[in-house]
Amino acid sequence: MTGPVVCTTVAQLREEIGARVTRGARTVGLFPTMGALHDGHARIAQRTRAENDLAVVSVFVNPLQFGPGEDFESYPRDLDGDVARLAEVGVDLVFAPSVEQMYPDGTPVVSVTSGRAGSILEGATRPGHFDGALTVVNKLFTIAAPGPAAELRAYFGEKDAQQLLLMQRMVRDFDYPVEIRAVPIVRSEQGLALSSRNQYLSAEQADHALVLHRTLRALAAGELTLERARSAIDAEPEVRLDYFVTVDPGDLSLVEPGPGTLALVAAWVGPTRLIDNMRI
């Protein structure tokens, strides 16, 4: 099996995309990641491959998304393993730049700000996180732009619901010629939403983390109120709740649970912070 072409510079990726478009590719699928790929990522990569003439996956641990005391240095990195996994699903190009390649002058002077929608929920706990995510994806849209002869589609998982909304708003607000496609959450057999940070969990902590999915499901079924769902999470050993709310999925404003609303939860399980969500 021939693996994907690994591009490490902006110029190389643009050259590869341009050559494929010249040869007839009319749709380019872009899946931005920070690597440490798991089965959830593989599902999104499969969608990217199946729905486009050219499938591109970026693997870049973006320092702008990490705040003081967060795990940028220790964030798991395994480019060889990531490339092998992406080869299995037939991805064409992997973009794996260095920090210096993406930010040659250090922290960019001009960046994208996420506004009010990026300062609540995850943004309240991780100030600047979404500004960093939007800034790097803004760059990726520009780098991977195939020109007028082809269409660019970008793929994001629904697990990061707030990030997905902000990406959709950035495309709409800036009139980018990019279609955002959302991919449903992939879970373990027990229900835990797959995440690169799950590898930090011990077997016992992973069992405790199941309370997040369990309470989301109970809330969605009308078996628990929000207050009782929060209490159930607080009662679980090694789990410390950050927030459990229901929001309007269009703008993340807080609403009472009801049909069409989105339940969002974030909690620390031991030292590991996890998020999950479910549509009511």
UniProtKB/TrEMBL annotation:
<feature type="binding site">
    <location>
        <position position="163"/>
    </location>
    <ligand>
        <name>(R)-pantoate</name>
    </ligand>
</feature>
<feature type="binding site">
    <location>
        <position position="186"/>
    </location>
    <ligand>
        <name>ATP</name>
    </ligand>
</feature>
<feature type="active site" description="Proton donor">
    <location>
        <position position="41"/>
    </location>
</feature>
<dbReference type="GO" id="GO:0005524">
    <property type="term" value="F:ATP binding"/>
</dbReference>
<comment type="pathway">
    <text>Cofactor biosynthesis; (R)-pantothenate biosynthesis; (R)-pantothenate from (R)-pantoate and beta-alanine: step 1/1.</text>
</comment>
<dbReference type="InterPro" id="IPR003721">
    <property type="entry name" value="Pantoate_ligase"/>
</dbReference>
<comment type="function">
    <text>Catalyzes the condensation of pantoate with beta-alanine in an ATP-dependent reaction via a pantoyl-adenylate intermediate.</text>
</comment>
<dbReference type="InterPro" id="IPR042176">
    <property type="entry name" value="Pantoate_ligase_C"/>
</dbReference>
<keyword id="KW-0067">ATP-binding</keyword>
<feature type="binding site">
    <location>
        <position position="65"/>
    </location>
    <ligand>
        <name>beta-alanine</name>
    </ligand>
</feature>
<feature type="binding site">
    <location>
        <begin position="34"/>
        <end position="41"/>
    </location>
    <ligand>
        <name>ATP</name>
    </ligand>
</feature>
<feature type="binding site">
    <location>
        <begin position="157"/>
        <end position="160"/>
    </location>
    <ligand>
        <name>ATP</name>
    </ligand>
</feature>
<dbReference type="InterPro" id="IPR014729">
    <property type="entry name" value="Rossmann-like_a/b/a_fold"/>
</dbReference>
<keyword id="KW-0547">Nucleotide-binding</keyword>
<dbReference type="Pfam" id="PF02569">
    <property type="entry name" value="Pantoate_ligase"/>
</dbReference>
<feature type="binding site">
    <location>
        <begin position="194"/>
        <end position="197"/>
    </location>
    <ligand>
        <name>ATP</name>
    </ligand>
</feature>
<keyword id="KW-0566">Pantothenate biosynthesis</keyword>
<comment type="similarity">
    <text>Belongs to the pantothenate synthetase family.</text>
</comment>
<keyword id="KW-0436">Ligase</keyword>
<keyword id="KW-0963">Cytoplasm</keyword>
<dbReference type="GO" id="GO:0005829">
    <property type="term" value="C:cytosol"/>
</dbReference>
<dbReference type="GO" id="GO:0015940">
    <property type="term" value="P:pantothenate biosynthetic process"/>
</dbReference>
<comment type="subunit">
    <text>Homodimer.</text>
</comment>
<dbReference type="GO" id="GO:0004592">
    <property type="term" value="F:pantoate-beta-alanine ligase activity"/>
</dbReference>
<feature type="binding site">
    <location>
        <position position="65"/>
    </location>
    <ligand>
        <name>(R)-pantoate</name>
    </ligand>
</feature>
<protein>
    <recommendedName>
        <fullName>Pantothenate synthetase</fullName>
        <ecNumber>6.3.2.1</ecNumber>
    </recommendedName>
</protein>
